[in-house]
Amino acid sequence: MKPYGGGRELSAWVRKGPWTEDEDEVLRRHVMENGPREWSSIRSKGLLPRTGKSCRLRWVNKLRPDIKKGCKFSADEERVVIDLQAQFGNKWARIATYLSGRTDNDVKNFWSTRQKRLARLQRAPGPRRRPGGASSSRGNKARTLLHTGGGGSSSSSRPAGDEQEPHPCTVAPLAIVLPTHCRYDGGAPAELGSSSSSATPAAAIRLLSFCCGGGNGAESMAASGVDPLVFVDPDDEEAFCPEPLAVVPPTPFFGLDEEYLHFGSAAAKQPDVRFDDLPPETLDFFDLPPSGQP
DNA sequence: AATACAGTCAACCGCAGGAGG
DNA sequence: GCCTCCTGCGGTTGACTGTAT
What we know:
GO cellular component, one term: nucleus
Number of helices: 10
Organism: Zea mays (Maize)
Domain Myb-like: 11-63, 72-115
Low-confidence stretches: 1-11, 126-294
Order of helices and strands: HHHHHHHHEEHEH
Helix content: 25-40%
Domain HTH myb-type: 14-59, 64-119
Distance between the termini: 52 Å
Keywords: DNA-binding, Nucleus, Repeat, Transcription, Transcription regulation
Shape: elongated
Mean pLDDT: 55
Strand content: 5-15%
Strand order of the largest sheet: 1-2-3
């Protein structure tokens, strides 16, 4: 291991960079014995050549047992973040308290990624997004959404093995209706099965799932094999959501306090979803203006 | 196949606030 | 009241990986 930060006297030496399994184990043991505190004593006792800050960060962001691992932000988690960010500003730690299993770092990373994406979309559609009209990548994107259990950020760096594991999240249905001018122009992802092949593109309904950390009732949905992302044929009376315009808040809603529950119910009373409220992923299904075309 | 781009994640840094002496 | 130490938070960066060209 190459020590960062140069070589001073031993007592001052602080290791930086990625944590090793051994270090994690030492840290876990410290927390088991002392609780999640006295971070600086870890170094002063010579347990680890890490700063207290580093130890705390490692515990909070990675080692805490209640953290969701390998689970993308679901569509609803995204919405919660977006709503709460509008309400609280960049108070990531506070926002994270509304999303069990998520850390402030998670929220922060999600938000910055989203901002980057939106900024790019505003700048220019870009040839990569629409390589000559209907992109064959749409199907891939949808499949990615399906696999990652929600409309959240598209997956990229997730190890392949994660998809095989039981989804750590719990799910409950959330209906979001895309505006009529949006378009789903691809064949249904293979996972969606043949039933969705006749879906009317302009009115494609996405039933997005969301992850409810620590929830209980929704867990059974996941266990019962409910698809986290389903395209529904509006002509199909059985599948079509009777009141599709409502963005239905789950109950309980990530253990939200009264304040947010009120906020959530207020949002539910507004049937029209603001464009900006939609997960950025949704933009993949929009027809982009022709101005960007050569 | 090579390359560029985009997304995700982990970790660092600086700053602010609170507690204790 | 001041100082120091510790903890927590927010911003930022870099490595890594997946995808599109």
